[in-house]
Amino acid sequence: MSSKLDEMAAALILEDRSALNYAVNVAWPTGVDADDQEAEQLCRDAWRSEEPFLGRLVGLISDHEAPLMDRSFRFSPARLNFARWSHIIEVLPAMIEEECEVLTGIISRLDEAAVKELLGTLMRVKHNTADRMIELHQKQAAARAARASGAGEVADASDGGGDDGMAFRDANMAIDDRMAKVKGADKATKLWAAMAQTDCTACGYDCEGYARAIAAGEEKDLGKCVPGEDDTANMLKKIMGA
Questions:
Q1: CA 146 – CA 138 distance, rounded (Å)
Q2: Which of 8, 153, 1, 20 is nearest to 69 (CA)?
Q3: Alpha carbon of 114 to those of 10, 62, 101, 120, 187: distances in Å?
Q4: What does the H/E/C string look like for 144-207?
Q5: What is the pLDDT of residues 73-84, one digit of tens each?
Q6: Which domains does the chain have, with CATH numbers?
Q7: Low-confidence residues in the chain, pLDDT < 70
Q8: How far apart are alpha carbons 98 and 79 in whole angstroms?
Q9: Reported pTM
Q10: Residue 239 CA: distances (Å) to CA of 41, 64, 76, 202, 219
């Protein structure tokens, strides 16, 4: 049976290493448009409401020597580095719910009413944050779809319609969907579509520049797209026949 101190330390480390804390205070997300600005503000406001719980947990165990615990993240930090804020609010809710599951287990093993109440309140704050992120993501996705539909109608009226060749430029679009948009395109365009579409420049280029450098043989490293992670790297290798 875990001791009271073990469980309190586990809750403290969970919150210290939480996905929201990482996204707001450690990661390097990118902002491209108003959707990203709105998503970033939601994340920062949410952390302001959650951060005091971290301080209270520190206070609860400050008079004890905390046991050594695994301080590894429960997620891949690379998922949040250089990603667009509008994408971050899409992936954070599931990560927050995983944290709440861990908190549920900790609460079930504690007897102290005050600590159980504190962690229960923290869970409610986390659930509320996840709900707000889901709501905002859905609203933004609907607005993007409406804009895309309107753009398509204009294209249909002016030149017979069809994609404008840049439909893959959406960081929130799944990589398979992006690749479907460029089926039959030249290699450089396919490479561009395989990028994360954040233009974060972590690779030393923007997304288009990295793609064209690979296509021209000027860039040999196919693993530089940090936000694209393995999905992008594997697709680049497939396109290049590596």
A1: 12
A2: 8
A3: 16, 16, 19, 10, 61
A4: HHHHHHHHHHHHHHHHCCCCCCCCCCCCCCCHHHHHHHCCCCCHHHHHHHHCCCCCCCCCCCCH
A5: 777 776 677 778
A6: 4-142 (1.20.1260.10), 175-240 (1.10.15)
A7: 1-2, 63-72, 78-79, 148, 150-165
A8: 16
A9: 0.69
A10: 37, 56, 25, 21, 14
